[in-house]
Amino acid sequence: MHVDHRRGIHSSATVRCRSPSTLATITHSAAVCRMESKYQALGRPGEGTVGVVCVGDVIEPQANDSVLRGHGTLLRSGSLVASRCGRVQRWNQLVLVEPLAGAYAAAVGHVVVGRIVQVEATRWLVDIHATTLAVLPLSTAGGAVRKAAEGAVDMRSILVEGDLIAAEVQAVRSDGQVQLHVRDAVASKLPPGTVVDIPAALVRPQRKHVHHWAATGIKAVFGCNGAIWIGVDGGSSAAVPGIEQVQAVVQAATAVRALAGVGQAITPAAVERMVP
């Protein structure tokens, strides 16, 4: 059955999707159809876009030996084309397509924003939007905690269920389980604020994932897992933010949602341009 997915018919069917160089028969789900409509509004690669592609689009017309094919791509008639919808990522010679939706794929060194969901004897389990819960061991939770680890430690006096933390991915096991690391478990706890969840592919790895807006007195943590925390800079659970700070937090969160809605990469500079 042929379905015009450009008109937003939400059903899974075999359709024909046109691309700049090929006509391919693919199977589209409702999510792919919705994403392609956003992709068409952004344009195609090579036209000043942010690198969003759909199935069958040509990424590299001349895929010579200097291009390494990563996941989400395939070779067709000497060209590197996308085998799924998503964002083009380039790492030196490696070219791959990361999906705009789906579970977060952790990598060592990533800064993530997660929520404590379970407290155990010597570790915390953290939801970071991955396929499994991440682990924050007591032994990697900062110097002050490690010194107390020799005796009995009240884990809930440090972090409890529902607490938000900013942490770094220390290791990813072969079974997919992620181990986190923080310099100080107490300092890693984020004060009250708002969390905006977006596709992880829209958050590019950068040197600094914590950004401060001195003019408005707010800050944001851009988690590589697609969780972006925005709150008052230097705030605490007991402090009551001013109305100007609350408005600034709302404006920044709205800017993040607007950028994500059109598939734009989320960076501090991009958010700052949209905040008055």
Q: Indicate the CATH architecture of the largest domain.
A: Beta Barrel
Distance between the termini: 48 Å
Low-confidence stretches at least 5 residues in length (pLDDT < 50)?
1-50
Major sheet characteristics: 5 strands, antiparallel
Domain module tally: 3
Percentage of residues in helical conformation: 10-25%
Share of residues in strands: 25-35%
At the first level of CATH, the class of the largest domain is Mainly Beta
How many β-strand runs? 18
Keywords:
globular; OB fold (Dihydrolipoamide Acetyltransferase, E2P); RRP4 S1 domain-containing protein; alpha+beta; 18% helix; disordered N terminus; RNA-binding; RNA binding; four-stranded mixed beta sheet; NA-bd_OB-fold; Exosome_RNA_bind1/RRP40/RRP4; five-stranded antiparallel beta sheet
Structure description:
- It is built from five helices and 18 strands.
- The protein has helices spanning 30-42, 143-148, 185-188, 243-261, 268-274; strands spanning 13-18, 23-28, 52-53, 58-60, 68-69, 73-76, 79-82, 86-91, 94-98, 111-119, 123-127, 134-137, 164-172, 178-181, 193-197, 210-213, 218-222, 227-232.
- β6 (73-76) and β7 form a beta hairpin.
- The protein is globular, with a radius of gyration of 21 Å.
- α4 (243-261) crosses α5 (268-274).
- It has three domains: 5-98, OB fold (Dihydrolipoamide Acetyltransferase, E2P), CATH 2.40.50.100; 104-190, Beta Barrel (OB fold (Dihydrolipoamide Acetyltransferase, E2P)); 191-276, no CATH class.
- The longest helix is centred in the C-terminal third of the chain and has 19 residues, at 243-261.
- By secondary structure, it is an alpha+beta fold.
